Amino acid sequence: xxxxxxxxxxxxxxxxxxxxxxxxxxxxxxxxxxxxxxxxxxxxxxxxxxxxxxxxxxxxxxxxxxxxxxxxxxxxxxxxxxxxxxxxxxxxxxxxxxxxxxxxxxxxxxxxxxxxxxxxxxxxxxxxxxxxxxxxxxxxxxxxxxxxxxxxxxxxxxxxxxxxxxxxxxxxxxxxxxxxxxxxxxxxxxxxxxxxxxxxxxxxxxxxxxxxxxxxxxxxxxxxxxxxxxxxxxxxxxxxxxxxxxxxxxxxxxxxxxxxxx
Length: 262
Known about the structure:
The protein is 13% helix and 39% strand. The chain has a six-stranded antiparallel barrel with strand order 4-5-8-9-7-6. A hairpin with a 3-residue loop joins strand 9 and strand 10. The chain has two domains: 3-215, Porin (Beta Barrel), CATH 2.40.160; 226-262, no CATH class. It has helices at residues 3-17, 220-224, 245-251, 255-261, and strands at 37-42, 47-55, 60-67, 70-82, 86-92, 95-99, 104-107, 111-115, 123-134, 138-144, 156-163, 169-176, 180-185, 202-206. It contains four helices and 14 strands. The protein is mainly beta. The mean pLDDT is 91.
């Protein structure tokens, strides 16, 4: 398999994997202040990240990230619609991933809805079509299936990679956004009747199932993002999220102080 085909398969898995951490996390996040920033630097991973809230109305957050051989940048804005018992969030913005050889991929996020906000068990779902446009030989189309009331297998994602030169389908993707993604080379629809593509499926990405549930269903990595390690405070600008007193009070369980600060 050519590196360029495997590249877009991994880009597709990356685009899906970002939704995995939303499972079980329905609480409203902190609304960043205008000009609030966050930066992270992991020299051992060759990774640097920076984000800033650049507009308050509408609320827009922009980010830039660099790794070994690639750059990623995006802007994020949400259009919210209240339906009585649910909230629909339609993302506005483009995510761009560029590799050092110049190949670029762009896509937008799918719709997110939060259900049973008045009564019942709250849950969220992601649905719609995600198109990953590649500047090179391949592009990808992913369909996030909307969960129905009687659905026994929710969170399904399926799609295909298409050759930009011929329009031919060269790989199929299937999985669940909160579990794993698999791929099958070729076009399974051209196989004989009764063929099960999962017999040839190969794993692309699998969610790291952390054993211990934390208070807000955050992963150990997500929890570490708010940590002020020794010497870090002196290096951060005053606009950094980790210096917000209300956020720090909440993490420490001092809810009255957090509300007063807010």
